[in-house]
Specification:
- This protein is of the alpha+beta class.
- The protein has helices at about 5-15, 25-40, 125-130, 130-135, 155, 185-205, 270-280, 300-305, 330-345; strands at about 45, 50-55, 55-70, 75-80, 85-90, 100-105, 115-120, 140-145, 165-170, 175, 180-185, 210-220, 235-240, 245, 255-265, 265, 285-290, 310-320, 325-330.
- The protein folds into two domains: about 5-70 and about 185-345, Aminopeptidase (3-Layer(aba) Sandwich), CATH 3.40.630.10; about 75-170, Peptidase M42, domain 2 (Elongation Factor Tu (Ef-tu), domain 3, Beta Barrel), CATH 2.40.30.
- The protein is built from nine helices and 19 strands.
- Strands 1, 2, 3, 12, 13, 14, 15, 16, 17 and 18 form a ten-stranded mixed sheet that branches. A six-stranded antiparallel sheet has the order 5-4-9-6-7-8.
Length: about 350
């Protein structure tokens, strides 16, 4: 694999440092658009905010589309309490315990930002004793403490903070000397980094593809309808680039590309899965086949929306999904290699 690891990591870091919770992805889309413009790569936008890059192929009637999502989990202000703290509700599905003691930023609708911390309503064992440990980590038992001298609801409202403001959670991105990447939101920014690098690689090397191939970056996957609309009409194969879940009872690895056989939406296309495995074997790409019992993807969203396509799901293995996640550069490299080799395969 002759791919530039430093460039891949720079792409990923840039993505991770730009907050993009579902419904608030404008900044990260502008960043991606600007990076494409620098290389004179054309793209088009969907009405819902997605982005599509297309490479013409020898066969234009049978098209392949790779989709990844740039939106992430997040939270919104649910209420301003009488004591000046904020209640919150999650965007997407995750364990509320993963937010405990996390730094965040409240972004108001008028463009102001305020730093804060997320705590339980019983953050001190010196005050609450064992009940602090026993408290269920649910949205009702979590609150946001602003880094402002506020003592009541009116104090908070005077800052311009209101219900519906986005809560941007610190990703805590760290890349180790051994090339592990630890961060929130590797789902799916690790996958998006692979897609962006692939787009640039195909363009830079003027690679000719057998089928017209599209790359669709979606913005609503975490709430279930990312690629449910606006697919290129001639798409016959839809391959979602999303994380493989690494953990107990799973085969997925942080050092390989994951190929999903089935998730909670049902089995993915068997013929495409076999072609993906064949491509890995032919090119010595490290891969794992796995099943994810509590998982859906942009590809399954498209199927549920009625698209007549063959769907598949691949991506880098990620540990501790929807929490403080970890992967390794090897998994991203394997994902890039599989995308490029499969896209080049007749």
């Amino acid at each position: 694999m002759n791919y530039d690891k430093a460039e891949i990591l720079n792409i990923l870091k840039d993505l991770l440092f730009i907050s993009s919770p579902t419904g608030h992805t404008e900044s990260i889309l502008r960043h991606i658009e600007n990076s494409l413009k620098e290389m004179n790569i054309s793209y088009k936008n969907t009405t819902k905010g997605g982005l599509i890059v297309s490479f013409p192929g020898k066969n234009n009637t049978y098209q392949r589309t790779f989709t990844s999502h740039v939106d992430t989990l997040g939270a919104m202000v649910k209420d301003i309490k009488d004591n000046g703290t904020l209640s919150l509700l999650p965007i997407g599905t995750y364990m509320m315990s993963t937010l405990e003691d996390e730094n965040c930023t409240i972004e108001t609708s008028n463009g102001k930002s305020y730093s804060a911390t997320i705590h339980t309503t019983k953050p001190s064992v010196h005050i609450s004793g064992n009940s602090a440990n026993d408290l269920k980590r649910t949205p009702e038992n979590m609150e946001i403490i602003l880094d402002e001298k506020v003592f009541c609801k009116n104090d908070v409202e005077s800052l311009g903070i209101s219900v519906g403001d986005y809560i941007l959670i610190d990703p805590r991105t760290l890349i180790t000397k051994k090339e592990f990447i630890k961060s929130r939101y590797l789902d799916d920014k690790a996958g998006v980094s692979a897609v962006i690098y692939t787009i640039k690689y195909l363009h830079k090397n003027n690679i000719k593809l057998p089928y017209t191939t599209n790359f669709y970056i979606s913005t609503y996957e975490e709430v279930g309808h990312g690629s449910s609309a606006a697919l290129p009409e001639k798409t016959k194969e839809l391959i979602s680039i999303d994380m493989g879940t690494v953990g107990c009872g799973q085969t997925s690895s942080e050092y390989a590309v994951s190929i999903c056989a089935k998730d909670s939406s049902g089995p993915y296309d068997y013929s495409i899965r076999k072609k993906l495995i064949e491509t890995c074997k032919e090119n010595n790409i490290p891969y794992k086949v796995d099943i994810y019992p509590y998982y859906t993807s942009d590809a399954s969203a498209a199927l549920c929306a009625g698209w007549d396509v063959k769907a598949a799901l691949i991506g880098p293995g990620v540990f501790a999904s929807h929490a403080y996640e970890r992967t390794h550069i090897d998994a991203i490299l394997a994902t890039i290699d599989l995308i490029i080799k499969y896209a080049s395969k007749a």
